[in-house]
Amino acid sequence: MKWQNSSINETLKLLKSNYDGLTSEEVLKRVKIYGKNELVEEEKPGPLTKFLSQFKDFLIILLIIAAAAAALVGDRTDAVVILIVVILNAVVGFIQENRAENAMEQLKNMTSTMAIVIRDGNTKNVVASDLTIGDVVKLEEGDNVPADMRLLKSHDLLVDESALTGESKPSKKDSNAISENYTNNMVFMDTYVSSGRARGVVVDIGMDTAIGKIAELIQGEEEKTPLQDRIHGLGKLMGLIALVVCTGIFALQFFKGVPLVTNFLTAVSLAVAAVPEGLPAIMTLTLALGMQRMAKSNAVVRKLLAVETLGSCSTICTDKTGTLTKNKMTVRQTRITAPEMAFKIAALCNNSSIYKGKIIGDPTDGAMLIYAEENNYRREELEEKHKRIFEIPLDSERKRMTTVNQFNGDKYVLIKGAPEIILERCKYVEENGEFYEISNNNRLELLEDLKGMTSEALRVLALAYRKLGPDEDFENRETLESDLIFVGLVGMIDPPREEAKEAVALCEKAGIKVIMITGDNKDTAAAIASEIGILKDGNVLTGSDLEKIDDEKFKEIVQNVSVYARVFPEQKVRIVKALKSSGQVVAMTGDGVNDAPALKKAAIGIAMGSGTDVAKESSDMLLQDDNFATIVEAVKEGRTIFDNIKRFVKFQLSTNIGAILTITCASLMSLPIPFNPIQILWINIIMDGPPAQSLGVEPSEANVMERPPSKGNIIPKRNLIKIGIAGVVMSIGTLALYYYELTSGASKISAMSVAFTVFVMYQIFNVFNCKAKGMFPNKTLIIAVIASFLLQLGVIYLPYLQHIFRTTSIPIMDWILIIIVASSIFLTEFISEKVIK
């Protein structure tokens, strides 16, 4: 990398090349050494291997065992349903694994196909993949840059690097520029020549280029989301419980002399009850419904589990332009001394246009055009009266634009540009129709106005004009742009979105830190961040500041930085890593190729709808309207979804624990097992299913965005205690009523029917304890509860079902006892809410 700050001759010497390029013979040698100039994919496993690997997950293995167990006890339907869930999860996982490869394909599709190269002293067209280190390449306006190159010669070269850096304005490139920022004399693969021409020597090809390094980063394996980790842990826990309990019950029943077949069926049925096989199905359903709701709000989720991750996110790293701001330069402040002339200059000394409400051309010119039109000075009408007859276009060195326009029989010079430069050329000021020679006090006053405007991060242009003499020559630029009449200062900014301010305030309430990461300068970033509410202490870190800080020091201060300005592409990944190392769940927005690694590294990557295909392919969520407020709305939806998953888990685990305790205690008390295997499956699959699934569509609680992000397990300690208490109460109530029936002279089948029914009623009542607090139950839940109750009545009273489930009709007095005992779960929840904090 020694060539970065070296002279052109030194660079050519280091690369063993020359201004007229390589010889064909040397090219062949170098291709053997350096390889092709193309992006290389890592070797990937085949489709079948990837699909089969989806079945290695611990919970999936348990589900397969549960399906086998269900088949063994004769419930083929249940076995088929469980297997369908297993296959559905495998398919979803398989699709997700292909996302990195899709991102890689997008990168490969971006690479240019042809290049103009000098070899053997002659200019020729070659396939870009055939370029090698030391090749000398010609670039013209409209070309895609075929490799990373050090410029040997350039002429007015502007390069659009937006796909790589995210910067919307083309970068000025100069072969003679040697500074700390070596990129000024470099062009990079797959950027675009906006204007000018150049000759450069290839310094990096293929995977060693800037875009190649990004390609390497995005091919890595995706990290698991917090929900995946939690579900994995829950599956292991429930599997262990199932193994211990089933083994214990089997041993107890065996030593009591219970027939081996009956004992085995009870044990495997209990195993099915202990494993929450409904969890993946309800999770998939809940997340899918959440995705549909989010899509209606312009947030398209590309990865199912990313919905939940948003709900857990504690930090949002967001771009500024277009996300927090309107991405539309707007005149905010002016210091106008001659309004009529100022409006005419704004409209006529301008090369932008407006088509269907959109600015075509430079956004600053566009803002000036709108400013004039809002004051009833339309460009089309003015151009009919004041035809342009000469122009000196804006460039980065002159920092001004000049036109000569016809005003009746006279010619006028109209000029706009950098205030310091325009003021130097002004001799007069027009104010209220009067003309005054500019004094030193006038200049100081105008410079003070300018300072005030720039302190608010406004981009300021000065406007001036003069009438030309009849014999003046256009060619003498210095004379043409002298003795001007000053008419005003116009300050512009890309203003923040109103909804972004509200969204940032909502994030603060929700305990979510918002961090702005932008390529803009420090002052602009600070001004916008302060106005929106992100920056409160003035702590802004620039990319060059970040380069001087080592990783350990950065980890210490990263929590205190809210704004990053002039950030280099690779630094975004470093910021995400530092935040993650401090325990943050990070959401990152991005739109350029350079953002792809950071999008993949973040817990959730959010691509802009206006961004590059590579960024979209590397993301978890697509923001169609590029609006920060949409992200916050998605966070709210994510929190609601995670709440619903916790509700479902709380409900199902209390059922599972209740069933396990009831069967275990009955065995220890030397009572007959109160449920037969078919009844256990009925409780777990049918009665537990629809009510539990209805919890997946519960609405948001009122305070969902007024509490900190969830950082705990899918079963917080508070919920775990409640689940345990609910399970114990269900077990005690069921066994008490079962024992009462047995000692009151009821038959064993009658007592079992009562125990079976009271346990089902516990589930029906308990689902209301798990719904969203302070909200009316959703329609799906009410329908599910009514359907579950009617199904239970069918099992108890219909002769055909009585035969299958081995039940008998329950008299009305027993129903009164059942309702009283089962409703105790409401009192249990009420006390738990008051006592357990």
Taken from the alpha-carbon principal axes, the silhouette is elongated
CATH fold assignment of the largest domain:
Calcium-transporting ATPase, transmembrane domain
The percentage of residues in β strands lies in 15-25%
Number of strands: 25
Oligomer: single chain
| Average pLDDT | 83
Q: Which ranges are low-confidence, i.e. pLDDT below 50, for 5 or more consecutive residues? A: none
How many structural domains are formed by the residues? 5
Summing up helix and strand content along with how strands pair, one would put the structural category as alpha/beta
Number of helices: 34
With strands numbered from the N-terminus, the spatial order across the biggest sheet is 8-25-24-23-9-20-22-21
Percent helix, as a range, is 40-55%
CATH architecture of the largest domain: Up-down Bundle
Let me know the largest β-sheet: 8 strands, mixed
Protein described:
With 837 residues, the protein is of the alpha/beta class. The chain has five domains: 2-22 and 114-215, Distorted Sandwich (Calcium-transporting ATPase, cytoplasmic transduction domain A); 47-106; 227-293 and 635-699 and 711-835, Calcium-transporting ATPase, transmembrane domain (Up-down Bundle); 299-325 and 497-626, Rossmann fold, CATH 3.40.50.1000; 345-493, Calcium-transporting ATPase, cytoplasmic domain N (3-Layer(aba) Sandwich). It has 34 helices and 25 strands. The strands form four sheets. The protein has an eight-stranded mixed β-sheet with strand order 8-25-24-23-9-20-22-21, sandwiched between helices. Strands 10, 13, 14, 15, 16, 17, 18 and 19 form an eight-stranded mixed β-sheet that branches. Strands 1, 2, 3, 4, 5, 6 and 7 form a seven-stranded antiparallel β-sheet that branches. The longest helix has 41 residues, at 628-668. It is elongated, with a radius of gyration of 36 Å. The model has no long low-confidence stretch (mean pLDDT 83).
